Amino acid sequence: MESVGHTGGQDCELRALLDEAGMSNAALARAVVTAGAEEGVHLGTNTTSVTRMLGGAQPRWPVPRLVAKVLSRCLRREISVTGCGFADRAPATDDLHDGLNCSGTLDGTVRTVVELSGRDMNRRKFLLGSAFTAAAFSEPALYALTVSPAESTARVAGKRIGMADVEIITEHIAHLRRLDHRYGSGRVREQVVQMLHREANTVMHGTYSEKTGKALLGAVAQASWLAASMAADVGRHSLAQRYYIQTLNLAMSAGDRLYAGNVLSHMSRLTVQLGHSALTEHDRLGHARQSIALARAGQNVANGKATPVLSSLLHAVEARGHALSGDANATRTAVLEAEQHYERARPDDEPTWLGFYTEAELTADLGRCLRDAGEPNQGTRLIKQALDGYESWRVRSRCFVQTDLATAHLASRDLEQAASLGRDAVRTASQVSSSRALDRLRTLQRQVRPLRSGSPDVRELDDRITELTRISTGRDEDTTT
Q1: pTM, whole model, 2 decimals?
Q2: In Å, how far are 104, 146, 218, 225, 275 from 139, measured between CA atoms?
Q3: CA-CA 20 to 30 A from 376: which of 11, 142, 332, 344?
Q4: Can you name the residues that pair with 159 across neighbouring β-strands?
């Protein structure tokens, strides 16, 4: 095996993994050759080759991937290329990962999540060249509507997992969600992806009962949902789409139809958000129809057992789809349904993972629906009400509604108030690492810029958005190189 470079030091990571596996240099060499043969790749890896690797030599591709594959099998957990101490120099063709599929089995789904999160951890530009496709949500939604009852989730494979372990995971997720709201996904997404990768491996390589297995799968589904939400918040929509699809598959594997309905609501929301920036009327209407279908699929998957808050959420995102399509009557009907369901809510009877969808979040959703459906005054009133109802740690949500309100005042030519709210939004956005917050401010800036010459307040706002965008863009470039 020829090497293509040198790290400049010993490969301590590979040495530690070989020691843990109880594997000699010769044994690793034989296993790599065998793994290559399984894929139709003929290699000359030998004991000397492994000695060079341990000395810091970088083997040619695909040897690093095969070393990771062999050690993953031996240690019964996922080992990445970088975890072996190698640079991940996979050719572009090796970096293509579907992740849009429904495997049809629990093991297949969990393996997909492990692979997806592993690639996300180890390749900063993973899937950056892929595009979000609304139609890709159709197959998993249909699968969720037609899937048979969940298979057994009990497993005997390794370390014993109990309910206390699952509770630790769910509490960690709740903590990370709160940090996400406070600081934006750019600052905490890496932690979430690492946790997802670790706990998905726990599902594959742990020992647990049926009851614990369902709870563990549910916790991993929540981690996968958070990874999806955060990918969307940093502008990685294609990656978010794949996480959402696998989250839906996990929820159905766990037999948790309520959580599956929640996932479909967020798939609908993402489709609406991207529909607002569609380049053509045809694409906008396509996103609108898809988002409505996803929200309704969520209601059907819940099978008549949706809680009041979940029903309210699903009707609210359906209303967002109708508003995007321009159907004012259907929007008002869905808004009314959402309000009526929320009025029946009892917090103690709702799942803990729905606790983040508060009355303020619902009010903001409905305000945007009515605004987009041709009722700007009523919509603005609700959005203002939402701003007053947010807890102090919901920094990103406050930024969104401040931008919405600035846009509303701009439309009514109240330039002074629009500029004041816009400056508030800029100050708030500077506290969070969120592409969504910046995108909303850029949209506001496009509306502000033609009015620069007539108002010093507007001119100042335009300059502040430009400066924030410059600083944030530089920060993003630093983290992706």
Answers
A1: 0.80
A2: 12, 11, 22, 18, 19
A3: 344
A4: 206
